[in-house]
Amino acid sequence: MEPYSKEPVTLIEHVFPGDTNDHDTLFGGKLLSIMDKAGGISCSKFAHREFVTISIDTLKFIAPARQGDLLEVTGKVVYTSTHTACSKVTALAVNKATWEKKKICEGYFFFVAIDSMMRPIPIPQFVVENEEEQIEWNKAEKIRSNMIADKSE
């Protein structure tokens, strides 16, 4: 079973007043929701399966997005196991006046493929093709190993 696409998925969202706190910066939960969506869609594009989120790890909030900014959120599958895919998701804030981009958040989102009865199903496997992909694979594999170790305690 071959992957259908290793290409990343990018979502663009506008930061509206209802998305912000009293400092006019984006709510973290709103950003997480968009990042989760981008990660899930990238996994579905990769495997042509339905996925549900099982874990979010190594999430780093780097800088705020402000009301009026655009959000450019990209998810890319970087790791797979039998039923699980990991998407590295990166969020950028885009200032519409200057079109300057800055990274605001990054994390690893793990998803499991499911059938119509919500049971895990196999997925195509990610094949590492270069050094950059190997680095990301190793990071995601380490995160997953720690997740499994924590679960068994």
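Above is the first protein from milestone M3; the second protein from the same milestone is given next.
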Amino acid sequence: MKKILKDILHSIHKSEKLLAVLIDPDKVDVTYLPNFIRDINKSMATHIFVGGSLVKKKDSEKVVSEIKKHTQLPIILFPGDITQITDEADAILFLSLISGRNPDYLIGKHVQSISNLKGTNLEVIPTGYILIENGNVTSVERVTNTTPIPRKNSKEIVDTALAGELLGLQLIYLEAGSGASQPVPSEIIKAVKKSIRIPLIVGGGIRSKEQLDNAYNSGADLVVIGTAFEEDESFIDNIKV
């Protein structure tokens, strides 16, 4: 087992709260990154995720390279497409969209990515990605041509997460989607956490410290925040150490 996943498991064993700040290369000004990353270094953030649904080729590499100049935090790719793979990062979430039924995002894109992954030093972490309905149509839905699981269908969400674990995936990621009007409900987080033994990531729609704490208290091992920073730069003050 390589370092990133091992460290996540070790932190969970010690009951530490993990927080990833998601930076979308399509939405960030590279000249803004030095100050933003310095603020992140002063916060409770433990990881930086880089990725998005509509990122242009080479933009990910440019953004990751700039981030690396200003932080020692692990940088993990959260790719929307194979063009976002760069060896500048430390690891990649090898996402399988198990909530959908589009074969491209269950295995097709993974096969296409192998030529890009060969020869890199990226730690590849197989991750089950579950998109949950939040009231808005997300970019993930449009790009992948899949539909999220209705939030009222908690049994299907739990069964999907457990199926992902039994398939050998090493992380489960519950996602309300970028720009979600509301985060993943606490009852869903609790039900999934109770059913699986692998780490649980929760993201989408978290815009307040209260919602962040609620995700942790419901069982999230690692919480991802992105849109909150895009909409309000001062949100970083809410997670200062």
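Note on the second protein: The two ends are 30 Å apart (CA to CA).
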